[in-house]
Specification:
By secondary structure, the chain is an alpha/beta fold. It has two domains: 105 residues, 3-Layer(aba) Sandwich (Rossmann fold); 180 residues, 3-Layer(aba) Sandwich (Rossmann fold). It has nine helices and twelve strands. It has a seven-stranded parallel sheet. The chain starts with a strand and ends in a 15-residue tail after the last helix.
Length: 308
């Protein structure tokens, strides 16, 4: 029984080492060095070439080496086998820390102090108590829940919204389209943790942004396609939104010609909010393979109908 491994662009050596230790009875072959396509049972991949997975007739499952699966679902010839997302708590913690950084940055005006220093300008800016700074988390999956708990644990007032009903201690939870406007009202900062699906594509548009209070902040740690960037630039240009911190974009790397680079109100990071560590993530992947071998359902299983 053989595993195909392709962590395209991020290195395979550490993954091969960890998977070999955790699954010693299985052979691991790094793409494209696949001596026998018939032997492949599991594909552990990130940004794998479209169409290639059809070459393995005995493939039982595809396991993503990152939280997202768009790199798989874009493939029109994706085999009809289970697709398993990577839900590593270590990644969720990294993304929660990244989010907390921007909450602190915007709440305490560190972004403004950074512009004052080159001007040798000494001026303090009033900051409310953390309990009076309203943070909203858009999307309450594993990552969103970790983000919400982390920020609430640092004294901030946190609410959350999801398509489906959720219950989290210390978090005021909203769900469904009818509750979205009420969720956005009164927020000082909103963090997007939604997956990119047909239902969420372009969701953060003119209407969404207009429902936020004037002077609010936006943080995106999810996918760039959830945001209408033209709409975002418009509210920033008008001064309605105070600033945005963006970590993911529709096209990556972000093209040099993108107007997002030049805008004073936008803070860009190169899709680094949640690092995937092979040592912890390989355990999650290996356990899912064990589940499949026992005839059990892996977790979290990508739902092709719902798009996440």
């Amino acid at each position: 029984m053989t595993i195909l491994l392709n962590n395209n662009g991020y290195g395979n050596a550490c993954w091969a080492r960890e998977i070999t230790q955790l699954l010693p009875d299985m052979s691991v072959h790094v793409y494209p060095d696949i001596p026998d396509p018939m032997a492949i049972r599991y594909a552990l991949v990130w940004d794998h070439p479209d169409g290639d997975l059809q070459r393995y007739p005995n493939l039982r499952a595809i396991l993503s080496l990152g939280a997202g699966v768009e790199h798989l679902t874009r493939d029109p010839d994706l085999p009809n086998v289970p697709v398993i997302r990577l839900a590593d708590p270590a990644v969720a913690r990294d993304m929660a820390h990244h989010s907390l950084y921007w909450v602190l940055n915007f709440h305490r005006h560190y972004h403004r102090y950074a512009t004052q220093q080159p001007q040798k300008h000494w001026q303090r800016h009033q900051a409310s108590a953390p309990a009076d700074f309203q943070v909203g988390v858009l999307g309450l999956g594993q990552i969103g829940q970790t983000v919400a708990r982390t920020i609430a644990g640092n004294g901030y007032a946190v609410s959350g919204w999801d398509l489906s009903e959720k219950h989290l201690p210390q978090i005021a939870c909203h769900h469904g389209g009818d509750a979205l406007a009420g969720f956005l009202t009164g927020l000082d900062l909103v963090i997007n943790c939604l997956p990119l699906t047909p239902a969420t594509a372009g969701m953060i548009d003119d209407d969404f942004l207009a429902r936020l209070p004037e002077g609010a902040f936006l943080v995106n740690i999810s996918r760039g396609g959830v945001i209408d960037h033209d709409a975002l630039l418009g509210v920033l240009d008008r001064g309605y939104l105070a600033a945005a911190a963006l970590d993911a974009f529709e096209t990556e790397p972000l093209p040099e010609t993108s107007p997002l680079w030049q805008h004073d109100g936008i803070h860009i990071t190169p899709h680094m909010s949640g690092a995937t560590y092979a040592r912890s993530a390989a355990r999650i992947v290996a356990e899912n393979i064990h589940r499949l071998e026992r005839g059990e359902t892996p977790y979290p299983l990508y739902d092709r109908r719902r798009g996440f």
